[in-house]
Amino acid sequence: MSLRQRVLLLTGVILAAVFALIFTLIVIAQRNALVNTKARELANVSGIVMSSLKDREMISAGSAEIIADQQWVAAAFRAGDRDALQRGLFPMLERINAIYGKSILHFYTPPAQSLLFVENPAVPITDFRDTRPMLVAANVRGVAQRGLELGPVGLAIRGVTPVKDDAGMIGVVEYSSDYQEFLRQLSALTNTRMAAFIRDDLWNNARKHGQQFTPERDQVIEGHRAVYSTDWPLTSAVIAADDLEPTRGNRTNARTRDGIDYGVLSMPLTDFSGQQIGYLVAIRSFAELDAAFVDSVRLGFMRVMLGFILCFGAVAMIFSSLLLLPLNMLLEKLRALASGDTDTSLLIPGRTDEVGALFQIAETLRLRMGKDTAKERQ
Fold first, then answer.
1. Is the peptide bond before 326 cis (omega within 30 degrees of 0)?
2. How many CB atoms lie within 10 A of CB 163?
3. pTM of the predicted protein model
């Protein structure tokens, strides 16, 4: 193996090691950035969910408060005039439904007996004191309540406000947003799949008192029943027991199904009284982020390879021009000198470095050999 081949081989090995290290560091940095991006996306989902839930609670409470403050509503409620309440409020309820989705508007007398379901006045009068503690709290304390509550017909975001007149407390008006419709809106807003898991004991108690509430699928995980889901096949395939284990805050997990990575965000659900009743689970597909990461790694590899080729070529060119070519030239001249050519100068003009010194020594030897040859001829 020639010197040129050895030098180029060694240079290639060193540069390959350096660029391999650079590529590894780039991949590690991109992987860390990917992990951080996924964590930020789940954190953003949590922020959107919490703020949306608070906003919807305020809408429910505000709507109930606006209705309760109407004097004609209080007069009709005091008189038990269901027809007047129905005629006056049904058009408003339709307008609200067009904006926020399915909503309900109910009136209850103390402690929790229904007077009118505005969206469906045919519903018979029912006593909810055993299943609707939110109504009982508002009627007994005379203080507005808002938040989540599980009732015989399902989970809803409710606002319950006392209705009063000069004679005192009449009852309460409830405005509620359908939770399943809320989940659909959240799913579209956050680009996730949503599912609500409710404690099985609470679900069984609600169902015992009203058969209208039935979950989408009959599945119990870690003591929680899947009640609502925007994508049941994915939910059933991805959610595991550790997603619903007791926790004081949000929990995140990673799942892989059919070659796709998912982020699972579990958020505790608490009702109006602060009692934890289950979990809201958001499932975020990271297929696009992972595909972008793979594309970024490929692009990085191509750039590193291009850099390696350019550096290797530059090093080879510089090494050849500064060292190998002069040495080859010196080798040829020394061969000529060895064959008896003492008349050709061995100097390289302008080279004052070590290579130039080597040519200077060779030139000195050539001059001495020339003198010795001349003496022998004499």
1. no
2. 23
3. 0.77
- List the structure tokens of 189: 């807003």
Token pair in block for residue 65 = 């408060």
Query: What confidence tens digit (pLDDT) does each residue in 49-84 have?
Result: 999 999 999 999 998 999 999 999 999 999 999 999
Packed helices 3-68 and 82-100: angle between N→C axes, nearest 10 degrees = 170
Order the strands of the 168-178 sheet from edge to edge. 113-117, 103-109, 168-178, 154-165, 145-151
The letter for the amino acid at 266 is: S
CB 189: neighbour CB atoms within 10 A? 12
Q: What is the DSSP string of 72-127?
A: HHHHHHHHT-HHHHHHHHHHHHHHHHHHHSSEEEEEEETTTEEEEETT-TTSPP-B
Between CA 27 and CA 32 the distance in angstroms is 9
DSSP string, 283-298: EEE-HHHHHHHHHHHH
Please give the DSSP secondary-structure letter assigned to residue 271: B
The whole-angstrom separation of Cα 121 and Cα 146 is: 23
How many whole angstroms separate alpha carbon 29 and alpha carbon 38?
14
